[in-house]
Amino acid sequence: MHRGSRATTAGARVLHEPPALRLFVALWPTPAVREALRARRDAIGWPAGSSVVADERLHLTLHFIGAVPCALWPRLLPALRVPCAPAVLELADPQAWRQGLVVLPALAVPEPLRALHAALASALTGLGLPVEARPFRPHVTLARRAAGAALPSPGEPLRWRANGYALVNSDRLGYRVLAHYGPRGVRPGRRERRIEPAPPWS
């Protein structure tokens, strides 16, 4: 009986252990930039079956981290606070990439953005987290599985002045901004109409 109780208790500990977070770091658009991204997306003729990115999911990924044990959270949040100078991006007209992706690519990588990407890579490596080896190609994904999309005529670049970045969790309910990083430090993220508590699994 006593041995069985210990097994039940151990099982309860495993059952209530918080799940790993599935994280990425991104430039998160202001409402005005999000509206501009939405307009570019909606000017495209999407073929049937396309997976078009919803308004609230539009962003520019800096680093995809993947699954992160929740035990690492107390170290992760401060470690990702790195120097961040304002960066002005110019996004080109929509382009069709391989495997059915349609994106808004950056015309060039501003030096402040390149420095931010490198500083975040160093921080992630210091925590033992993976960093992609591929060259950094900043872009906003508009849709997946969208081969054959009718792209609009060329227009003016979309200007995006980025003053910070965000740590975001992706789960079955969508994206949740866990923290915003900027000139004033770190502040909690907002999802829809409520502030998410920290740690994010509570």
Q: What layout of secondary structure does this protein have?
A:
Elements: H1 2-15, E1 21-27, H2 31-42, E2 51-52, E3 60-68, H3 73-79, E4 87-91, E5 95-96, E6 102-105, H4 111-126, E7 139-144, E8 158-162, E9 165-171, E10 174-182, E11 185-188, E12 190-191, E13 194-195
Antiparallel strand pairs: 1-3, 1-9, 2-7, 4-8, 5-6, 6-7, 9-10, 10-11, 12-13
Description:
The chain is 24% helix and 32% strand. The chain has helices at 2-15, 31-42, 73-79, 111-126; strands at residues 21-27, 51-52, 60-68, 87-91, 95-96, 102-105, 139-144, 158-162, 165-171, 174-182, 185-188, 190-191, 194-195. Strands 3-1-9-10-11 form a five-stranded antiparallel sheet, covered by helices on one side. The radius of gyration is 20 Å and the shape is globular. The model is unreliable at 1-15 and 191-202 (pLDDT under 50).
Main sheet attributes: strand count, strand direction, barrel closure: 5 strands, antiparallel
Percent of residues in beta strands?
Answer: 25-35%
Secondary-structure element order, as H and E?
HEHEEHEEEHEEEEEEE
Say which CATH homologous superfamily of the domain at 18-38 and 56-93 and 104-139 and 163-195 is assigned.
Cyclic phosphodiesterase
| Global mean pLDDT | 86
Give Rg in angstroms.
20 Å
Highest-level CATH class of the domain at 18-38 and 56-93 and 104-139 and 163-195: Alpha Beta
Examine the coordinates and then state which fold CATH places here, giving the name of the CATH topology of the domain at 18-38 and 56-93 and 104-139 and 163-195: Cyclic Phosphodiesterase, Chain: A
How is the quaternary structure best described? single chain
Q: How is the largest sheet built, in terms of strand order?
A: 3-1-9-10-11
CATH architecture of the domain at 18-38 and 56-93 and 104-139 and 163-195: Alpha-Beta Complex
Q: How many E strands?
A: 13
Low-confidence stretches: 1-15, 191-202
Helical content (DSSP H or I, runs of 4+): 10-25%
